[in-house]
Amino acid sequence: MRLPAIALLVCLLPWTAAAGVKDSRPEGFTLENSASVPASADETWEALVNHVGRWWPADHTWWGESGNLSIEARAGGCFCERDGDRQARHLEVVFVDPGKTLRLAGGLGPLQGMGLDGTLEFRLAAADEGGTRITLWYRVGGYSPDDLSQFAPVVDRVQAQQLDGLVQFLLKRQAGPGATKGD
Hints:
- It contains 5 helices and 9 strands; from the N terminus they run αβββααββββαββα.
- It is α+β, with helices and mostly antiparallel strands.
- It has one domain: START domain (Alpha-D-Glucose-1,6-Bisphosphate, Chain A, domain 4).
- Strands 1, 2, 3, 4, 5, 6, 7, 8 and 9 form a 9-stranded antiparallel sheet that branches.
- Strand 2 (21-25) and strand 3 (28-37) form a beta hairpin.
- The radius of gyration is 16 Å and the shape is globular.
- Mean pLDDT is 89; it is low at 1-16.
């Protein structure tokens, strides 16, 4: 897994990242990952909602192709994956404040199949060092015969990887046209 190398690289960059399990109990957990990027809130929003298939990790899709992902940034919209007749609604868009907040509801990945529910938010704000601070917040809960607090660290690592995909996509775009070749 590339996560340790990515974490080291992010620590060396002037753009900071923070992650963590905010709370966890047998019936659910709250996660919060954040990072700053040298992009405006509008540029960050545009990448978040219009290019999810270019930054979301392919190994966190149902059929291994992140290019099949899309986000309809409207209430009732779908964060969906479509591969011909194979389709999945990862989350439903429930709140949109362009350039500031995208809130989605549902259980991601295996949490969906476990019957769990969650609220995921991408929050964008001005970063102290300039650019935009992205906070990826996720709260999950529901009935399970299992202790859900045990899932929190694993889901937190996945959330950090997903946020890092968005950060790396934005950093490449900020580096210039040559850096986005093939994106």
